[in-house]
Write a structure and sequence with these properties.
disordered C terminus, 2 domains, five-stranded mixed beta sheet, disordered N terminus, Rossmann fold, 305 residues, four-stranded parallel beta sheet, alpha/beta
């Protein structure tokens, strides 16, 4: 009985181990062979930064970085996705944030067997960390995710240190406004609850508009002067190449009378990085902005992204 049991037991163990090995290999392959549609620039940037960009088959209109994505099909705005256009590409997964949609499209994709991952979206450093770790888990890139967040955190800490040093010496933070002027629309100012306001805070700046309103709002000339920004940020660079500091000041002459306008401290950033969640460039951009706030005073800059 003992002689018969031992070989049978060993055979069972070996079969179980082989099955587990096959399942592990299958799981590994599934991470590497996804056909991903990415909706939201921040999510797209994280996927590429994790080294999984070769699995992305299409992106939304806000996804413009890295440059490789410009060779991929674009499937509309991340809040107005079409199920038909996505399904035609035979994806296995749609990844975006909780503000992508509409819900009917997401439901139709799930019914067709497409895995839909909608990540929580908040304009904070913690949200960036959570998105990176969630995507790293989904894509089997945990080690890369940890390294990516450490790099971002180092830059954010350096930006905080610059702000703290300045505040200790001058007993104040630099007041900064984000001015949205695109597509011929009336310029508006970013208040609380916006990605632009979060970026100002991560760079160690102070947004006086955040104390007065939420979202974006057009302000009177008098209100603009009362806010007295020492630095003005606006979406330019690749997201709005026709908008330069000079063009912005021409469109809003009142800005010339602010401390920022008088000293020429008008800074462009890539506006697309504020859409669909802050991404892996946040650390570098925040640090670059912090330097323009606290080290390069009086030296205008036209591009920080």
């Amino acid at each position: 009985m003992k002689k018969t049991f031992k070989p049978l037991f060993l055979s069972s163990v070996m079969a179980f181990a082989a099955a587990m090995g096959a399942n592990t290999a299958l799981a590994h392959n599934s991470h590497d062979n996804q056909r991903i549609v990415s909706a939201g620039n921040g999510v797209t940037e994280i996927i590429y930064a994790l080294g999984a960009g070769d699995q992305v088959i299409a992106v939304d209109q806000t996804s413009t970085w890295p440059t490789q994505v410009n060779q991929l099909p674009r499937l509309g705005y991340h809040k107005q996705l079409s199920a038909e256009g996505i399904l035609a590409l035979e994806p296995t997964m749609l990844i975006g944030t909780e503000d992508m949609g509409p819900p009917s499209t997401l439901a139709q994709l799930e019914s067709a067997g497409v895995e839909v991952e909608a990540l929580p979206l908040k304009h904070t450093a913690e949200s960036i960390e959570n998105q990176i770790k969630s995507l790293a888990d989904i894509l089997g890139k945990e080690e890369q995710g940890n390294a990516l967040w450490e790099d971002i955190e180092d830059s954010l800490d350096e930006a905080k240190a610059l702000a703290a040093s300045y505040e200790e010496k001058h007993e104040k933070k630099v007041p900064v406004l984000f001015v949205l002027a695109m597509g011929g629309r009336s310029p508006t100012i970013a208040g609380t609850g916006t990605a632009a306001n979060a970026m100002i805070g991560l760079a160690g700046g102070y947004n006086p508009a955040a104390e007065q309103f939420k979202g974006y709002k057009a302000l009177s000339n008098e209100a603009m002067l009362l806010l007295a920004p020492e630095v003005i940020i606006f979406p330019g660079s690749t997201s709005n190449p026709d908008m330069t500091p000079e063009t912005l000041l021409e469109q809003m002459p009142i800005l010339k009378q602010t401390p920022a306008g008088k000293s020429g401290r008008v800074v462009a950033i890539d506006g697309n990085m504020l859409l669909g969640g802050l991404g892996p460039r946040t650390g570098d951009v925040a640090l670059s902005l912090a330097k323009s706030f606290y080290l390069d005073q009086g030296n205008p800059s036209s591009n920080e992204s």
